[in-house]
Amino acid sequence: MAHVGPGLALSLIHPYVWGWIRKGNRMEHLTTAQAAFVVDAPLDTFKKVVERAPIKPQLVKRGGRNIRQFGQAELVFLHAYDELKQALTPKSQSEFYEALRSSLKRGHAKEVVFGKQRYDIGQHLVFVERKLKELDKLTAQIDLSGKEPLIRGTQIEAHRIAALLDAGATVKDVLRDYPSLKEQQVVSAGVYAEAHPKAGRPYPKQTAKAAMRAADLSALDD
């Protein structure tokens, strides 16, 4: 998982993002897909790491299924996991995780003390905060009021645009076929879909206009 270089100043974690919203004295947490985005890991890889790591995500029942939800301690631990595997035994990793949870609850966030060891988590907090802010900014671009997430102010599905980007289209390519969109809207659709993968049938990986252009070029080659 990606790490931020040393020397960055510590700042407060931004608490108001999708799924991580304060309700009274209770803090809602991030879904698995959101957490994978925040720690900058592919979803499949992230799920495997979660199975191995000594963390305790909350389990919430939804639709008859237990859904994992990740809080601040889990996000920081998982972003630091590559380092922790090299530096600590599995037992020490568990001790660190429990100390991390306790430290964050008390507001002593920059350094975690467990046993005779100390671990500076400042760079990981900064990285997690930056990714949380990326998610936060998406709320201004994505309309979640209907059945499908739409790019705000349009009837264009966020996952439809993301499917084009996933297939290799550039932002410029997408704007060519969707001239009413702005660059930030296209980027936001891609980031949103990365954090919230689409369930069910995927959208086409090419627009009709792009397919027609490709067909015309093929005809010229004949």
TrEMBL record:
InterPro entries: DUF433 (IPR007367), Homeodomain-like_sf (IPR009057), WH-like_DNA-bd_sf (IPR036388). It comes from the Bacteria. SUPFAM superfamilies: Homeodomain-like. This is Uncharacterized protein (DUF433 family). It comes from Rhizobium lusitanum.
